[in-house]
Design goal:
27% helix; alpha/beta; seven-stranded mixed β-sheet
Length: 183
Amino acid sequence: MRITGGSLRGRTLKSLKGKGTRPTASRVREAIFNIVQARILGSRWLDLFAGTGAIGIEALSRGADHCTFVEKSPRVCPVLRENLRNLELVNKSKLVCRDAALACRQLAMEQQKFDFVYIDPPYEEIGNYKRVLGLAAGCLKPDGIMAVEHNIDLPPVTETALVEIQSRRYGDTAVTFFRNETR
């Protein structure tokens, strides 16, 4: 898997072999960043269920100031740590190796706020969408954007101040974008 744009374009990310992760396809990543490109420079990102870190690393490559990566898998966290080290992004990132809901609670207690939150839980854990969406909304700056990657048959549901602004379909995958309307 390669970074598709920015200063790290063409650089390779390590990943686990097998079904341990489901990396976001390069065409989906490119489409996401085409949508949010005007707001990336200097932004802060939260990449939940980060896997190899492709989304957050792509954001850093394209000009984001910082990304916090959250991944609970003890097999995947070392791979993500190695990707950050190999790409010299350690000083622009934070890696949290724990459950996304617990990490969101901790980040909210620390009053961490992000311009962008990207959520891509394993599709079989659809119950995580609603719970994590609500918790992650508390970490989003006013007018911040949350993007949720999901199977087209299982759209995300939120009971927060987030307002759906658009949804895009890429084969069996969709990405739904929300904006934080709180002030």
